[in-house]
Design a protein that fits this description.
By secondary structure, this protein is mostly helical. 69% of the residues lie in helices and 2% in strands.
């Protein structure tokens, strides 16, 4: 298969992996879901080692040949998993934000939701190996230990509420908030520490202070 053809096939598989169920009919959605679920489980279990295709196949109860039909390489498989994680995270963040009408409350919801996993040992235990393997899988998209594609996608959710708050440079403001939130996430996750509610609320207050007009 030519490189161009394989790239097109991989892009189609990644789209199928991250698309809603109604859009994935005929794309082997059930098998793709089983493969990605098994990959995630293997990541958590074997960390810090990289998951092996043979172990993923065993957990998914299918042959390695079937996995390679959908994902020609391990990097293709991990890229599809990242696409799924990114879309699920973006969708969940958006859902949490739409529960508020005030743009400052929407920004606060984005920050609290993004940092919530730092307060739970179980959530952190699941997140740490995923971040590690996804960073290893696409070094050209790694940014200071995080994945640039993920961060760009979820950070864009801040643009509209920041604009509504009166920001005259909402993209830069989104970068600043994102750098603070993602940097804190990496510091706590890699350091195997846990944040308190007070820690998270302090971040929210710092980020929103720029848009708070002091009373005279």
């Amino acid at each position: 298969m030519h490189t161009h053809d394989r790239t097109q096939d991989t892009a189609k598989t990644n789209h199928a992996a991250s698309s809603p169920p109604s859009d994935r009919q005929g794309a082997g959605s059930d098998q793709i879901a089983r493969i990605l679920d098994a990959t995630l489980a293997e990541m958590v279990e074997c960390s810090p080692k990289a998951p092996r295709i043979v172990d993923i196949a065993k957990r998914a109860r299918m042959s390695t040949k079937t996995i390679y039909v959908f994902f020609p390489t391990k990097d293709d498989l991990l890229a599809a998993l990242l696409a799924r994680v990114t879309e699920l995270s973006r969708s969940y963040l958006e859902h949490q934000m739409t529960g508020h009408t005030d743009p400052k409350d929407q920004i606060g919801a984005w920050i609290r939701t993004s940092l919530a996993r730092l307060t739970s040992p179980e959530a952190a235990r699941l997140a740490r190996p995923v971040l590690l393997q996804l960073a290893r899988s696409s070094p050209q998209r790694v940014l200071y230990g995080g994945n640039a594609d993920y961060e760009i996608t979820v950070r864009q959710l801040l643009h509209e509420p920041l604009r509504r708050c009166g920001s005259d440079d909402f993209e830069r403001d989104a970068h600043v908030i994102g750098d603070l939130v993602f940097g804190m996430s990496r510091r706590f996750l890699w350091g195997e520490q846990y944040a308190s509610t007070e820690d998270i609320e302090h971040v929210v207050e710092c980020c929103l202070a720029r848009f708070t007009v002091p009373t005279r």
